[in-house]
Amino acid sequence: MTKSQDAYRLISPSGIETELPVLRGSTGPDVIDIGRLYQEQGVFTYDPGFVATGSCTSDITFIDGEKGVLMYRGYPVEQLAAHSSFIEVAYLLLHGNLPKASELETFTETIRTHTMLNEGMMRFFGGFRYDAHPMAMLSAVVGSMSAYYHDTMDVNDPMHRDIFAHRILAKLPTIAAAAYKLNIGQPFIYPRNDLTYCENLLHMFFAVPAEPYEIDPIAADALDLLFILHADHEQNCSTSTVRMAGSSGANPYSAIAAGIAALWGPAHGGANEAVLNMLGEIGNAANIQKYIDKAKDKNDPFRLMGFGHRVYKSFDPRAKIIRKMTHKVLARLGRKDTPLFDLALALEEIALKDEYFIEKNLYPNVDFYSGIIYKALGIPTSMLTVMFAIGRSVGWTAHWREMISDPDGRISRPRQLYSGPTERGFVAIGER
Ligand code: ACO
């Protein structure tokens, strides 16, 4: 980051002039540093939802929403999707550069050997109802890691920060699989450290003790690609939540649990589950127009799930990759989910020609097609956001590490525009 020679001059109605420095990143729009505004002018800025506000400096991910560009540490996501693996991308996001062969080998080995959960943590699953939502279980069990690893987690110790990152990445699939097995009433399958990250996940999800389970390499590859695409997305809602919770110096496992809770919402990662539910509700192509009309109706709260994005205003590059992959996966894994995909394609085609969606720059986002692939892989609808969380856990961890090691870091504490009652006197209960 550099300070540009340019500055904005803000003159208040009473004539107080403040010079607001302009900061320049390595690419992307400049930002105006408003840090001195309150001190000099006595006013705050107002930007609910952070539509025009940068909350931090970050080296991790760059998005150009107008051009549909997404880069992790400078590498376009299309190149990583074509040539890399999720574990390699995880190393890149956490450490800043692509690993050398020996570094990748050590990192892969470390993740492989942190997959088991403390048995006490496993017993938590016995306390959940059989039909508990897996996102609720994921958030609760990850939160409980702060109880297991509190004394050994000094946020100021770089080695502890590394171990935290390894544990999150390695253990999330194990927690997710345990939640799934609880939901379907099957015995929990322990991790196997001889398998790759995604093979191990599929094994823990779908193997049963009674018979051998053969891992489908096509499914493992598809999962790996989806995790790459979900790995990071700069200051999105869940990542900002992790940064904010962590900014107080809180135990980072609790900060990740907060991020999982934020991701669950249907306006964020919960959209992939909502898309499948919506497609199920639409049922067939004859009903599409009715749902498009509902989405356009200001008096109807219905939104076309998997459409629209705060940042992307031309297209979501991840959706493009996933759309192409869906064709391939359905062709190779069998076509029983093809009608659902055909319905999604038909819905996309109609929406993209509709004036309302064109005018508001509403395009399919990453979640529009991801649910269909996950479904084809046998992952049930209720587990879709959990899959997203596994991929995104790398981004959360990378951002937490960046935030906590920033020497200029401060606790996140936004201001507000107060609109409640002004001062009034207490009224005794009998007189109200
Ligand atoms: N269907 C119908 N109308 C929509 C949709 C949609 N999916 N998305 C936005 N709009 C309309 C809004 O009604 C609004 O119209 P108005 O200007 O007339 O009031 C306008 O487009 C702008 O929408 P906002 O909600 O202000 O945009 P914002 O940037 O705050 O929200 C969001 C982005 C949450 C993604 C929104 O587009 C949405 O709800 N989409 C559906 C849910 C979804 O797919 N979420 C996943 C996002 S990707 C991710 O998190 C991984």
Tag the structure with descriptive keywords.
432 residues; mainly alpha; 3-stranded antiparallel beta sheet; 6 strands; globular; binds acetyl coenzyme *A
Alpha-carbon Rg, integer: 23 Å
Label the overall shape: globular
**Average pLDDT value?**
94
Percent in helix: 40-55%
Which blocks of ≥5 consecutive residues have pLDDT under 50? none
Largest sheet: 3 strands, antiparallel
β-strand number: 6
Note the beta-strand portion: 5-15%
Helix/strand layout:
Elements: E1 2-11, E2 17-24, E3 31-32, H1 37-41, E4 61-64, E5 69-72, E6 75-76, H2 77-83, H3 86-95, H4 101-112, H5 119-124, H6 134-148, H7 158-184, H8 197-206, H9 217-230, H10 237-246, H11 252-264, H12 271-282, H13 288-296, H14 317-333, H15 338-353, H16 355-359, H17 366-376, H18 384-404
Antiparallel strand pairs: 1-2, 2-3, 4-5, 5-6
Helix pairs in contact: 3-18, 6-7, 6-11, 7-8, 7-18, 8-9, 9-14, 9-17, 9-18, 10-11, 10-18, 11-18, 12-17, 14-17
Bound molecules: acetyl coenzyme *A.
